[in-house]
Each structure stands twice: as C-alpha cells, then as structure tokens.
Design goal:
94 residues, 3-stranded antiparallel beta sheet
Length: 94
C-alpha cells in the first residue's frame, strides 16, 4: 500500500501478500524492505495519476485493477506471452 513506501529513504516495506484473491501475511510471516531508489519516480507518477474511473483521488493499492490488487497470475500470464513472442524459453518469475 502507499503507506508502505518510505519516500525519504527510498524503500518499500513489504508486509502483506496477495494470493488467490486474499490479502494475508507474507510467506515467512515477517516484513522486509526493498530498495527502490531507481523506481520511485515511476511509482510517484502512478500515485498522482488517475485511477481507472478517471478520478484523481489516491487508490490505496500501488498495483491494481479497478482499485483491487492485481492477481499474481495476471502478471505471470503477460510475462509468459512476452517470452513466447520473443522466442525465449519459459522461466519462472518471483
């Protein structure tokens, strides 16, 4: 969520997982920090942009579709299509 981004220190605190349509604890039950110094400018533009309904208020989820978290399979399916078009072998993403 947006509150998990530390803009001053340039990291995201991962505290939740989204799997099979449910938000829960992370797999290990602990939180972790991910350094995003190079990506924060892109994320900031997404935060201040319009949501899918054309409204400019903030959506609580960073990666969302119609204000709901994106299912992990959606990302995986797009990645697999890109691999296939590029003629590359299947690889797993994490």
């Amino acid at each position: 969520k947006w509150g998990n981004i530390d803009w001053n220190h340039r990291y995201i605190q991962v505290e939740r997982a989204f799997k099979r349509g449910e938000v829960s604890k992370t797999k290990t039950g602990t939180s972790r920090r991910i350094n995003l110094a190079k990506l924060l400018a892109v994320i900031d533009r997404k935060k201040t942009g319009s949501n899918t309904a054309g409204r400019s208020e903030e959506v609580p989820w960073i990666f969302h579709r119609q204000e709901q978290p994106i299912a992990q399979n959606s990302v995986r399916n797009v990645f697999n299509r890109v691999l296939k078009k590029a003629g590359m072998r299947d690889v797993r993403i994490h």
